[in-house]
Design a protein that fits this description.
This protein is α/β, with parallel strands linked by helices. The chain is globular. The protein contains eight helices and 15 strands. It comes from Candidatus Sulfomarinibacter kjeldsenii.
């Protein structure tokens, strides 16, 4: 039976890797980490435990990344240092310098879980999981911005080519600049093969046209719900999804589009540290 492989954003989520907030997160200097304010650790842990309970209730096996990573507050965002393909993991290289070192640590955890390493980005390449969006099993959209550079895209393309995967470059806007976290998945999440939730003003026209050509319906997040991570929605299965509470307009629009929407509280865990449900989870296995 298949034990890993996640070349999809929407197939039923069977196995996922998470990291419970630790002292590095609770003591994070907001200025250094570019957080809104310092998280309260006990509250963040309670919110994370509740998130994990939702994932398990949805039928997902939850595994923990517990390698010691002192001074790495962002390590709770397990989505970013790696992606998992049908042939193994690709260890990325973080564009945010404070996060360097997370990549090898999560690679070790995955190898301990019998997920082999397919490739590792090297040299000046940078790429983060939040910029990598599977449009289908064989097409990976790559956000080209401050966190994922041209060399990262080149090395990813080379690593994925033997798997029959095509990469599509998506130019990202400047946003609030290099220190801010603007990933492709800050703007769009896939919720079904033909459905995505988006903050469309930040998407480049060629990419919007590509989505339209693929027959992908777009549920738009209003301006007022973009800062509270309205577009950051984790698909648990096609049109069954998990998002942070407090985005009622987006939730209603998703439900109108036929989605079952679950929510979690993320005041400490997500809003203060600017990382939503997709950021907090690294899918290891998605399968029908």
């Amino acid at each position: 039976m298949k034990s890993f492989g996640s070349q999809s954003m929407v197939e039923p989520l069977k196995k996922v890797l998470v990291r419970r907030p630790d002292e590095a997160f609770g003591s994070a200097d907001p200025k250094h980490w570019h957080y809104i304010s310092q998280p309260e650790l006990e509250g963040a842990q309670a919110e994370h435990d509740a998130l994990v309970a939702i994932l398990r209730e949805a039928g997902c096996e939850v595994l923990y990344h517990e390698v010691e990573l002192p001074e790495h507050a962002d390590a709770i965002f397990t989505h970013d240092p790696v992606i998992v393909t049908d042939e193994g993991s690709i260890i990325l290289r973080m564009g945010k310098e404070q996060r360097r070192g997370e990549e090898a640590a999560i690679g070790k955890t995955l190898e301990d879980l019998s997920v082999p390493t397919l490739a590792t980005l090297e040299g000046e390449a940078t790429a983060e999981g939040g910029d990598l969006l599977w449009l289908d099993h064989d097409t990976l959209a790559v956000g080209r911005g401050y966190r994922t550079n041209a060399e990262g895209l080149r090395q990813l393309t080379a690593a994925l080519r033997p798997l029959g995967v095509e990469t599509v470059e998506v130019q990202l806007p400047h946003g609030d600049g290099p220190v801010s976290c603007l990933h492709l998945m800050s703007i769009i999440s896939m919720l079904d093969h033909d459905l995505a939730v988006v903050h469309i003003p930040l998407l480049p026209v060629p990419f919007v046209e590509m989505l339209s050509d693929r027959g992908i319906e777009l549920v738009e997040v209003p301006d007022e719900e973009y800062p509270t991570m309205g577009p950051n929605v984790l698909a648990l299965a096609p049109r069954r999804c998990l998002m942070i509470e407090g985005n009622p307009v987006t939730r209603e629009r998703l439900e109108t589009a036929g989605c079952e929407v679950l929510t979690y509280r993320g005041e400490e865990l997500s809003l203060k540290a600017e990382g939503g449900a997709t950021c907090l989870t690294r899918p290891i296995l998605r399968s029908t």
